Amino acid sequence: MVASIADVPARSRSTVRTLGGLLLALGGISLPFGSWLDSFAGLGHLIGNELIYWGLVAALLFYVVKVERRPLASVGFRRPGWMEWLLAFGTGVLILACLGLIYYVVFPALHWSENQQLAKVSTIPYWLNCLIVIRAAVSEELLFRGYAVERLQELTGSRLLAGALSCTVFTLDHVSYWGWHHVLIAGTAGVILTVFYLWRRNLWASMLAHFIVDAAAFLLG
């Protein structure tokens, strides 16, 4: 069916809005706020850095509802069932097993270490570390998975390409602090989390899986 003239501008406006949202989501979270604020310079710097990320989350949710005029279900906020929670737990455990293999087998074999970065993380108060772990699960799953995957698939027509693009940005965003060897860590976690989201399309479940990984790594050690 040939599209009417009135339909073309409407689709164009929708595409522009989607591109704007992707710029906000992927572009926003990719900015090196931690370096600009020198986040480890003090408690105030760390809190300021976290407030920026929460502000980005709020801005994107506002964008979806008020600018795109779409429901939050369009970015994965769907009611999870018991199966989603169970699979989320299993996904978190799977990621931990894979990362444990990398940290304790691959890294030593390659003489790689993240002790310097981990030493800085260990100086963060425990209560703030808890908030950071929650924020990371919420913000990264919303921005990289819920929004980016959904909108990139709409633009490209390919769920594989959408997952690959969002996962690539997610992986590279961890390089600025952790270093290039962390690509192996972030890439492994990113691939599994992306596949899980593409399978279940439930952002709450993805957030839980992400939280399990970061909580085990930074709160239970």
TrEMBL record:
It holds the Pfam family Rce1-like. The chain crosses the membrane at residues 19-37, 43-65, 85-106, 178-199. Keywords: Membrane, Transmembrane, Transmembrane helix. Residues 127-215 form the CAAX prenyl protease 2/Lysostaphin resistance protein A-like domain. InterPro entries: Rce1/LyrA-like_dom (IPR003675). This is CAAX prenyl protease 2/Lysostaphin resistance protein A-like domain-containing protein.
